[in-house]
Design brief:
Blueprint (H helix, E strand, L loop, with lengths): L1 H9 L9 E2 L7 E2 H4 L7 H18 L4 H11 L15 H14 L1
Length: about 100
């Protein structure tokens, strides 16, 4: 009997996430637009946005060279393979990292 119930339940018609819900005049929304995203966390999103603003502000205080070194070092934008075109000594790198830690 359990098997029969399972078969009956699984044979139900499926629905499309693109199905219109709400108004029939085409002004409604799609089903996928009204299903809540359980992974979405507004607080985390706002914290990331605030952090990005803080980082942008701190980067403005750096020279273009320092900015590029930090971006390459931490993978903020450009590929680290470009580091060869931008030579830097170990002591200079250490100094820049110490300066960056002052903002942390």
């Amino acid at each position: 009997m359990e098997t029969l119930d399972s078969l009956i339940k699984s044979a139900r018609r499926s629905i499309s996430l693109d199905m219109q819900v709400g108004c029939d005049d085409g002004g409604g929304r799609k089903l996928y637009e009204v299903i809540p995203d359980e992974n979405f966390n507004l607080d985390n999103m706002l914290e990331k946005k605030d952090l990005a603003g803080i980082i942008r502000s701190a980067i403005k205080n750096l020279t273009p060279r320092e900015e590029k070194v930090l971006r390459l070092r931490f993978g903020i934008t450009e590929s680290a393979t470009n580091m060869g075109e931008f030579p830097i000594s170990e002591s200079e790198l250490k100094l820049l990292e110490e300066r960056a830690n002052e903002y942390a």
